[in-house]
Amino acid sequence: MSGGRVVTLTANPSLDRTLALPGPLLRGEVARLGVSSTEPGGKGVNVARALAAAGAEALAVVPADPTDPLVTALHALRLPLVTVPTGAPVRTNYSLTEPDGTTTKLNEPGTPLDAGLRAALAAAVAAAAAGARWVVLSGSLPPDTPEDWYAELVRAVRGTGARVAVDTSEAPLRALLAAGPDAAPDLLKPNAEELAQVTGTPEAALLADPAALSAAVARLHDGGVGEVLLTLGGDGAVLSTAAGEVWSARAPRIAVRSTVGAGDSSLAGHLLADLAGAPAAERLRRAVATGSAAAALPGSAVPTPELVDPAAVPVTPGLPVPSPEPVPAAGRDVP
């Protein structure tokens, strides 16, 4: 793998508590849980963990106290960290996983970020970005954070020479895309639901009509976004570049255990291939292979290289043909 550091910012990190249900979730009933787990999480943390598991140089920036259980867990994984103390505990998110891979998430709101904390985090990211290949801004924004904060961070990072990838949703995603071309990231990783949120085209229409999907992705490029890595769950993913290349990949059929963090691993796979100088088609292949490998693992575990099989991922030029039988896989996790 070629050299190059990737810096991730997780503005709203979490401890991810995964509870394994014995069957479908039944409201009002008692469930006898199987083996459960707690892992350090948040979308940017997941990306950094997946990169580090593959041998890449990753640095995670998080708002958390030095003694927070999240920080302790990440130190145990030997993941390089920059922490900005908040004086409050990191939130806990709960994932209820059913035997067929269906996942129900219960996410706490997180610690509010006041102006001082935001300034400290922005300074930490800018300092870490100097000499880095990529900066990843990933996940939801915690309470009291302006919706356009990611746009401010993209502009601030531009001068460092690092490229910027963003993976977020809802109001922060809409605000980012409304901020103008100078705030547009080099790489945006939406899923179909998020693409529908920002283009106004219903998700079902995007998945059923290649023309609608193409128009929606083109709107992102028109707004200044460089590459679009669109994850489509069991239907795989699409990679569209500003140069006009469009590639589609099918996800391999897998036994899904948890989709939590699978989209983050997809993004990590793309970055790993980019660090190695791979062309667009191979970046997409690695993204889908890594995300699918993550979906086959419990909780928010990230795959090691021996679990990732790019050869099992077919990649073709153009947009995908709608699948009559989608299967759950990478890309439907939420911030």
Fill in the keyword field for this structure.
335 residues, alpha/beta, UDP-N-acetylmuramoyl-L-alanine:D-glutamate ligase, ten-stranded mixed β-sheet, four-stranded mixed β-sheet, 10 helices, 14 strands
Secondary-structure topology with pairs:
Blueprint: E1 5-9, E2 14-20, E3 37-41, H1 43-53, E4 57-63, H2 69-76, E5 81-84, E6 91-97, E7 103-107, H3 115-129, E8 134-138, H4 149-158, E9 163-167, H5 170-178, E10 187-188, H6 192-199, H7 203-208, H8 210-222, E11 227-231, E12 237-240, E13 246-249, H9 262-275, H10 280-295, E14 315-317
Task: Give an overview in words.
A ten-stranded mixed β-sheet has the order 5-4-1-8-9-10-11-12-13-14, sandwiched between helices. It has ten helices and 14 strands. It has one domain: UDP-N-acetylmuramoyl-L-alanine:D-glutamate ligase (3-Layer(aba) Sandwich). 33% of the residues lie in helices and 20% in strands. The two termini are 29 Å apart.
Strand adjacency order, main sheet: 5-4-1-8-9-10-11-12-13-14
Question: What are the segments in which pLDDT stays under 50 over at least 5 consecutive residues?
Answer: 326-335
Mean pLDDT level: 92
Radius of gyration: 18 Å
Distance between the termini: 29 Å
How large is the count of helical segments?
Answer: 10
CATH class bucket: Alpha Beta
State the share of residues found in helices, binned by percent.
25-40%
User: Can you tell me the CATH superfamily?
Assistant: Ribokinase
Structural class from helices and strands?
alpha/beta
Q: Give a short account of the largest sheet.
A: 10 strands, mixed
List the helices and strands in order: EEEHEHEEEHEHEHEHHHEEEHHE
CATH architecture: 3-Layer(aba) Sandwich
* Count of DSSP strands: 14
How many domain regions?
Answer: 1
Fraction of residues in β-strands: 15-25%
What would the principal axes of the Cα set say about the shape? globular
- What is the CATH topology classification name? UDP-N-acetylmuramoyl-L-alanine:D-glutamate ligase
